[in-house]
User: What shape does this take?
Amino acid sequence: MLTMVSVRNFLSGSHSKLKFAFSPKILDLDLLNVIMVLHQIQSVILKYGNETQELLKWASRSGNLGLRVLWLILHFAVTICKVRYLAMVIDSEEAQELSKVFELLQWVADIGVKSVCLYDPEGVLKKNKEPITQRFSSANLSEEAAVNGRLVTRRNLTLEFVSFEDGKEAVAKAANYLFVKHYANGTKEKSDFTEPQMAEALGAIGSGGAEPDLLLIYGPTRCHLGFPAWRLRYTEIVHMGPLKSMSYGSLVKAIFKYTMVHQNYVTSSCGTSMMRKIDLTDAASIVCILLRMFFFDCRTKVKRYLLACMSN
Amino acid sequence: MDEDSSSISRVLSVGPVPDHIAFIMDGNRRYAKKRNLLDGAGHRSGYLALMNMLKYCYELGVKYATIYAFSIDNFRRRPEEVQSTMQLILEKIEDLIKEESMVNQYGVRIYFLGSLKLLSKPVRLAAERAMVATSGNSKSVLSICLAYTSSDEILHAVQECCGEKWDEGSALESKGAGNGLVFLKGNENGKIKPSIVVKDLEKHMYAAVAPDPDIIIRTSGETRLSNFLLWQSANCLLYAPPILWPEIGLWHLIWAVLDFQRNFSYLKEKTKLS
Assistant: This one.
């Protein structure tokens, strides 16, 4: 059975020895190390994708019940379609806390979402576009590779910045665009405008953009604060609470819930079973994220429990 | 409304009461399946639930109510289902116009919002009759979204604005007041100023008969707006109780109103800023 020490040694010999002792004094450090180890496992899994697939296939064939259960959990938990385009509405006052925004975006990138639309009504995030995009640009990728001595597969994040003026004002501009294109030549066109024409007009005036799959609201109320109407038609809207009390767990839960709902929609409409072909490397990666989240969030509780045990 | 609920209503009225509540009545078909009823029975139960909710709203002092009765997307359902839904809608519109209905009891003026030209002739005529019959009522308003989607509403508003600007321009042209580019204002520096503004668009929205909603309630726990009042919901509280529409009751409305009252100052501030 793999122990933390042997896993750690397997991955690299350059880090300090891990003391996985249940002593409260070094518990903080130990759990932090556990999280780091899990992060490294995730990187390894992403790198050695094929090997992982073979391991999990072997686990399914082996008589080991525990491994088989893990394999089933892996399939069940992650037969998912990913969130292709995520939008986040952030209350403008809370958006001033850029450190929180950076942290949130880092979590989103870790989960594997590739495209994010950031909205706040007053355009605070738009004004801070440069520092935010710099943080998540591929310029950082080579830096990280140099530190680790090998290329870590880092998910790139495409960011879009939207504010209130990209909503109603943009539609008014698009209306003027359509007017100039179809009416101002002197003849009144008989046919009605179509949705593709409207989408084209919005694109032409610089307020185009895809409709997000999922919209997360970070603010005191469940209210989309004027997110462009044309892009909100069938978007799932989830209220996450204020930005200051954001948590990794609730973010993962929201994305997970979205993908499960859409999995059910796809399978019930197609009449197929829950098990469909998945990318096992991504599946294993997400399990690692869930485990990491579990350790991260339970750290205090575990510490308290162990302190109580030690004192008895 | 019974004594208990009217007392609750009086207590709630101490705080700000929403002016306009909108409902997405989701879950009728699932309700019918759950209770092993025939297909149409879910919608009929839904109609009873709707009448109750409207009564509670008007008693509470909510002046405007909007309901999402039939989306343009719903035309894509099975033809038999569309047919039976239209039949039910026709039947219920006739019921609403009757003398003893809730509509006259509460002085409700009815509007039908949507691309009514997509409806069959009997339904369209019934809708027009209902609007005429209740045009004298002024205590409350019920907007029924029929053959409606927000994207269609926005397109319609854009179309109307363009047509209006063209007519204005043509009128000026015929008076000899302008040059070839009379359609577009402010040509002093050779720059063309846009002439269609947000106010013009809002004038031509189907939902212009009522102010923006304060609360949108969608039942069955779905978190999408499904192309409903997207333009008007910028500073609107979204409430999504997990119950099916025919199961909705007074307590859900009370919960929504309490949530609205808790967030009133925040939402009001956001409305001012926009």
Observations:
- The first helix of chain B runs from residue 3 to 12.
- Strands of chain B lie at 20-24, 64-71, 108-113, 140-148, 215-218, 237-239.
- Chain B touches chain A through 46 residues (CB under 8 Å).
- The mean pLDDT of chain B is 90.
